[in-house]
Amino acid sequence: MIDAVATEVLKTRRSRVPWVTAATFAVATAVGGLFMFILQDQDRARSLGLIGTKAALVGGQADWPTYLSLLSQIAALGGMLVFGLVSVWLFGREFSQNTVKDLLAMPTSRTSIVAAKFVVALMWCLALTFQLLVLGLLAGVVLGLPGWSAEVLGSGALVVVVTAGMTFLLTTPVALASSVGRGYLPGVAVMIGSVFCAQIVAALGYGAYFPWSVPALFSGVAGPDQASPGLLGVVLVVPVGAAGVVATSLWWRNADQDR
């Protein structure tokens, strides 16, 4: 297992994909900071050409609670795409680059290979979440946002981490799709389909019962008028993540690799 994890880490370190995901989260954090900058003084933003003369941003204040809530929303919406990309790459690359037979010929069990990929995916997504928090805190300090306190920071950071954790669990079916579909495209299709269905179900008012809608609702992206998913919604995420891991492991262990 240690050798399998080390191999996956080496593959990841030599790839450009981690830099792409890190840059994506950095841009998302910068956009969040830009929104706070505009909300601080919209007249100043108009004079700088950041928004149109007649445009206005509503629905928030430029303070720490609002900014931390925005970071959690980035973890929910952007995380589903970025974390999904991580799973697509880790599992789909073996088939797209025709290295799966070489990988399975090694004296390492297929279950260990899958477990190593999920371990690396978890570490990767945790690093991205940490990056999001650190860059977000730096941007908030630079902007001089009001409302700072240890309690606000702790609760806001906890929401970001929990949201990112739930989002990661919901990407395990993406790994299964990339494996069964033997490439990148099936995983990307499942990832996009999950995001689309999550938006539709949440708009219909049943998001609390649809696991893929739960992280966004938990982060508050739907606004104060939308009810929180509650404990039931959060609990529903766990079996989805576990089922994705188990199903992926079983497929790798039992599937015939005929090409």
Describe this structure in words.
75% of the residues lie in helices and 0% in strands. With 259 residues, the protein is mainly α. It is elongated and about 65 Å long.
Radius of gyration: 20 Å
Instruction: Report on the biggest sheet.
Output: none
**How would you classify the helix and strand content by structural class?**
mainly alpha
Number of helices: 11
What is the CA-CA span between the terminal residues? 25 Å
Helix share bin: over 70%
- What is the N-to-C succession of helices and strands? HHHHHHHHHHH
Residues in β-strands, percent? under 5%
Mean pLDDT: 86
Q: Please state the overall shape, judged from the principal axes of the Cα atoms.
A: elongated
How many distinct folded domains?
A: 1
Residue windows where pLDDT falls under 50 for at least 5 positions: none
Q: Give the beta-strand count.
A: 0
Please name the defining characteristics of this protein.
transmembrane helix, 259 residues, elongated, single chain, transmembrane, membrane, ABC-2 type transport system permease protein, 11 helices, mainly alpha
